[in-house]
Amino acid sequence: MAGKTNDDLSLELFIVLARAYNSVVAHSTRDIQSHGLNTTEFGVLDLLYHKGPQPLQKIGEKVLISSGNITYVADKLQKKNLLARRASPDDRRVIFAELTEEGRAFFEKIFPHHQQVLVHAVEGLGMEEKRQAVELLKKLGLSAEDSFKSGRAE
């Protein structure tokens, strides 16, 4: 990479990062769709499985979808009997979503395979390379977030 400027390397990094992300996500998406779910539905089930019942408003924030969309996704999962809604005992305005027994069993059945799909998707890197990638990508993400919030470089 001799002779490349910082600008050239920055652009190349962006392109390589985007292509790698798309390739890894393709593995995940194909597996999720094979279970009759979309990625948002899977994200909601994953959150509820690992974090327990959540207020609908918080689910939208955590899986990065709008409040209108979380209602739609919750409706779809409820129709599949994977999710149930219940009112908060402390505040009637707050509605919690939680996995049904069927939802928990379904997720427990599909998640181990999904995890292996992800392991396979990133097997091009060894253990130490994965550690380095995690460290570097966290650093990159935090720096990009900070500069975005401050409005720098725009």
Summarize this entry quickly.
This protein is mainly alpha-helical.
Structure characterization notes:
The chain is mostly helical. It has a domain at 23-123: Arc Repressor Mutant, subunit A (Orthogonal Bundle). The chain has six helices and three strands. The chain has helices at residues 6-33, 39-51, 56-62, 67-79, 101-121, 127-150, and strands spanning 54-55, 83-87, 95-99. It has a three-stranded antiparallel sheet. Helix 1 (6-33) crosses helix 5 (101-121) and helix 3 packs across helix 4. The radius of gyration is 19 Å and the shape is globular. It starts with 5 loop residues before the first helix and ends with a helix. The model has no long low-confidence stretch (mean pLDDT 93). InterPro entries: HTH_MarR-typ, MarR/SlyA-like, WH-like_DNA-bd_sf, WH_DNA-bd_sf. This is MarR family transcriptional regulator. Pfam families: MarR.
